[in-house]
Amino acid sequence: MGIVFRKETFRDDFSFRNSPANIRRFPFPFDRDAYMYAVNIEAHTNGRPGTVFENGIDVDEHYVSEMQDRALVLAEDPLRCQSLPHMELAGWDLLELLMEQQAGGYPEHFELHREGLNWRWINRPLGIDDRFVFGDVSTLPYGPMEYITRQSQGDFCLLDQRDDNLWMDAGIVTTQADWSLDFDIGMNFMEWHAPVPRAHEMGVFDRALKFMLNLRHGQPMRRFNWTMTINPRLDTSPENYHKWGPERTTVTTENVGDKVHLRVELQSFWRLPRSNAVVFPIRCYLLKLDELVTVPKWARRMHRVLRDLPQDLVDYKGMTRWRPLAIDYLAAFDDGAPTSPGFWPD
Questions:
Q1: Annotation marks residue 223 as catalytic
Q2: What is the pTM of this model?
Q3: What is the pLDDT of residue 195?
């Protein structure tokens, strides 16, 4: 049985919801009752069925609606997709990777057929059936990176490796947590991570860069990142701060469970074969507190993590104004019982 895709919005009336099954597969990012920065990188191997790790590139019930929201963002702001001229080969690498992963993981929804350089791509959820010549951009309606990432959940950054560093020289970014591709394009790894507190002093980025420079083709890696968002808004970009920033003032005791969302990024890293670039997919998952507390272990742990979070991280993640309301809400679901190790529900 294929995925049943939801019809929902990530703006205006915010009709986004998770089904009970999708709540259980949410990538809850805390494996203990406290949080602090760490490199936390592990092999991105296929994991247990029914989880976001089942396939290398995850497709879920929000796929169609997320692609519709991406098209709206790009129509409003084309600079959310940029590629410097030397990155076209990396774009073809990325197209191949995403088509292979989606067709291999979800054959009921996607098909890829190849005869030499003549390729046929079928995307049933979006009603696409295209034939093109691999490597010939004139046979696609967009450049290769934009073509396939308009059909793939999550943001994608293409990183060129040179001078013992990684440079963000291409990407499509429409679901980001308050950072801008248009601002960061052309920056190196340390430059675009410069605003993050504590992590530089802890050496987190030095170790992460060294690790990523030695990433091998065929051995992708992954890590989690997280923050919290008011309303299920995918596009929380600096360019649109005037839309989502004021929403932080709308949280009340009555609506905190509905409005406050845990926002988790499943970040993976793949070495690309022809260009030697690294692709950095950043897949965003949203879960409102009302949905989170249906899993008792996560409710207890979320309360303890949020309660004990250092103040500079609270400020950096933009939680200062409404965090006390969220802690009070979650406290009602924390009976003080110990939680089991690991991410998974009991």
A1: yes
A2: 0.94
A3: 75
